[in-house]
Amino acid sequence: MDKKINKHVYFVATIAAFGGLLFGYDTGVISGALLLIKTQFAEPGALQMAPELQEWVVSVVLIGAMAGALISGRLADRFGRKKIIIATAIIFLLGSSISGFAPDVTWIITGRVIIGLAIGVASFTVPLYISEISPKKIRGALVSLNQLAITIGIFVSYLVDLGFAETPEGWRWMFIVGVLPALVLGIGMFFLPDTPRWLLSKGKDDAARLALEKTLEPDNIQNEIDSIKQIITSEAKNKISIIELLQPWLRPALIIGIGLMFFQQFTGINTVIYYAPTIFQIAGFEGDFAPILATTLVGIVNILFTIVAIWLIDRWGRRPLTFLGLGGMVVALTIMGIAFNQAEVLGSSLKWISVGSVVIYIAFFAISLGPIAWLIISEIYPLRIRGIAMSIATFSNWLFNFIVAKTFLTLTKVLTIPGTEITTTDGLQNSNPAGAFWLFAAVGVGGLIFTYFYMPETKGHTLEEIEEHWAKGKHPRKLK
Ligand code: BGC
After folding, report:
1. Ligand 1 atom showing the smallest separation from residue 371 Cα
2. 120-155: pLDDT as tens digits
3. For a pocket test of ligand 1, which of 58, 147, 262, 269 has the largest count of ligand atoms closer than 8 A to its C-beta?
4. What is the value of pTM for the model shown?
5. Nearest CA to ligand 1 atom 4
6. Cα angle vertex 328, ends 326, 332, to 5°?
């Protein structure tokens, strides 16, 4: 394919992936910000905010994201992908400013809900936009760019957290820096066209042709327009509703999408992403700086292994990678649990074992469920219901994410074996997270069983072949 065309598509996808960057930045930033917020807004007489309130500060973003994921499918169809992504950038700007200038916790929470709304919309529309502008041959790599952007966003948030960890009220800056990528996204998207598919669905044929001229060679343009129009006409004839997803032939696809999102979230990824510095403090790192520094290492490993995944996904296939990744996560979680359970015996070595096992855990997540869950939901649904189906799977992702984030600190309290509480150097008594890690490990074992019996291998299949597989009523595992 023409190099100039390739470069252009990568450029456009990169601008759109700034939405993924914001997704990552705004979900990761809270880990370091929380350490400062929880002491600044402690109840009079207490050393830190009540754990329940801390959980709200972390997880309220996810309520916004759930709402965003649910409504974005319809809005993106009505107003176009481009306008919705620009609107998302504006909402990001608003939310970042409100939480950055917040006078109290209520305002922080308000700003975080607004940011959440933007994240929910971005998590759905960015992959949609990228997949619709991409030529078939490089669509996989381009869509995965979004997951890479998420991990880069998380890492940058850790660096920014680190930079402001010792600044008075540094959490304000941590939130406000999020304004910069939002500006790049908003301004960048303003100059890009909408997707040819959406333009054609609105009868804007000339604009669609112009957009296609930048992503396809001249000879292929008319063909592409004809095939998109054909799909649009057939979609208009057979109106598809959510109900169709419940039909026996599509039920496996629905279960796989929601199932993968369940295992992606219930194996505890975001307890690490949101609470890593807190976990490292409990493991024995002192102050705010060292735990955040250890967390940046987690961020780097997350990026590097996502790159490894992008490289391996089309070579090894989705199933082997998911097996390997889940297996490694289960082992790392079990070690984490044993280490925290034996905190007394291990003494100061606990902090290094905790960093080691968290790093191993994140590496295995990054080569498997991180990119693969999002990739699979963009592959397994028939084109005509991909929008609704993806938004349901995305919603379930945020719902599960919310449940885990909201209950983690309470869970550690409930599952602490009496007598294993850990007192950190600042004098705080903390519940022992061992039980929670073991619970996540057990869910991981469930994930391995689910993968073995239920996950299809989509590598090397066209989307039409996958659709045909469902239409024939075949078992997901038979797709090899
Ligand atoms: C997940 C997020 C997670 C991120 C970590 C994404 O695939 O959906 O919940 O925070 O990966 O890299």
Report:
1. 7
2. 989 888 888 887 887 766 776 788 889 999 999 999
3. 269
4. 0.86
5. 370
6. 115
